Amino acid sequence: MSLPAPGVTREPMTEPMAKPLTVPLTEAEVARLRADFPALAETVNDQPLAYLDSGATAQRPQSVLDAELQFLIHSNAAVHRGAHTLAGLATEAYEDARATLAGFVGADVDEIVWTSNATDALNLVAYGMANASHGRGGAAAERFALTTGDEIVVTEAEHHANLIPWQELAAQTGATLRFIPVDDDGIYTVADAAAVIGEKTKVIAIGHVSNVTGFVAPVTEIVALAHAHGALVVLDACQSAPHRRLDVRALGIDFAALSGHKMLGPTGIGVLYGRAELLNALPPFRTGGSMISTVTMHEADYLPAPQRFEAGTQPVSQAVALAAAVRYLEGVGLDRIEAREEQLAERMLQGLASIPGIRVVGPAAGVPRAGLVSFDVADVHAHDVGQFLDAHGIAVRVGHHCAQPLHRRLGFSATTRASAYLYTTEAEVDRFLAAVAQVRAYFGEA
């Protein structure tokens, strides 16, 4: 990569305490980084691509593309299944990738489970709890069992991936699904959470960073509330892990889900973190080869975690590529990426505030948020806004962003979302703002 890779140190993260002063990435450094991303050299509608949709899928640096290709050329084989040389090389690369991800989030190696994506990771936990509720897993799994009178808590701001699995768990077990409400800006407080979390709460599932509002959840306080009542905490870290340091030990969470394609990695790969004692007690819900120790015609014994959750052929080359993406992020520095994105978010917020007919959702200007901004343009549908911006070479996300309940609460069917990443320039943000300022006039609404 273009920037030198400084040594990475890990200090416990204690959100929401003030972070040490961090120097954001500079425009010159971002310009050098951009040379590592082939897709950013593309043109769209005869204009240079301004890619402001990294909240959906991030672009990949050449080093990540090369890592996967080199594995496929030189080491491609089934893992944990052969005694030949290629099988050994593939298994070593696969497990080295797991160790890299464990270090990235502050976990032990046996606490990292490969999944096909973050949605799969969240379903793994929910359906494992459902199996425990139906008597699977024996005495060790009883801690996960839910029944009538128990409560599952989410927030009104959740991505569907962190809502629907819990709806299904409630339906299967008779538990009640409750939610922490949000205000007119789409955010909530610790007091709001405390009003919902109680003695009946068995599991709490929250997003670390909202993919719609950019709101950063008060995770440590919610963990304290949950654990005081003996509840487990599941964290959707899809919008945080690519952009800020994620220390699962310091946060005290029990499970967390990450998505590879949002953090410079490939699609088809996700990560579930779980505390070792919990993973080893949770019944698997996907079964088959490679996750068993003994099989008879009538029963099977499962391997310890993480293998007990990795049935069948695994996304090996994708895991290798994701590890390369993690090394790239660590080389740049998550603290510097976060600081840079906060600057870009503030630039977007201030610019949008100066444009008539724009309503931004989420934390107000001056309040820390992730590097994404969702907004509504008065009298113009979000899809039309997106097409107008695309005509100017600017890629954004439009729709409900897999968060229909939140949009319904905010009074919208859809919004337009611009999301920045480590390769986003101030000039791209300014191009975006200039184009948004023309939208209402173009559609005859000014």
TrEMBL record:
The UniProt entry, under InterPro entries, shows:
Aminotrans_V_dom, Aminotrans_V_PyrdxlP_BS, Cys_dSase_SufS, PyrdxlP-dep_Trfase, PyrdxlP-dep_Trfase_major, PyrdxlP-dep_Trfase_small
Keyword Lyase appears in the UniProt entry: yes
Domain Aminotransferase class V: start-end pairs: 51-432
- What chemistry does it catalyse, as a reaction equation? (sulfur carrier)-H + L-cysteine = (sulfur carrier)-SH + L-alanine
Give the record's keywords alphabetically. Answer: Lyase, Pyridoxal phosphate, Transferase
What is its EC class? transferase
Task: Kindly list the GO molecular function terms attached to this UniProt entry.
Answer: cysteine desulfurase activity; lyase activity; pyridoxal phosphate binding
Region annotation Disordered: residue ranges?
1-20
Lineage: superkingdom:
Bacteria
Q: Which cofactor does it need?
A: pyridoxal 5'-phosphate
Please tell me whether the keyword Transferase is annotated for this protein. yes
Q: Which family does it belong to?
A: Belongs to the class-V pyridoxal-phosphate-dependent aminotransferase family. Csd subfamily.
This molecule's function is given as: Catalyzes the removal of elemental sulfur and selenium atoms from L-cysteine, L-cystine, L-selenocysteine, and L-selenocystine to produce L-alanine.
The name of this protein is Cysteine desulfurase
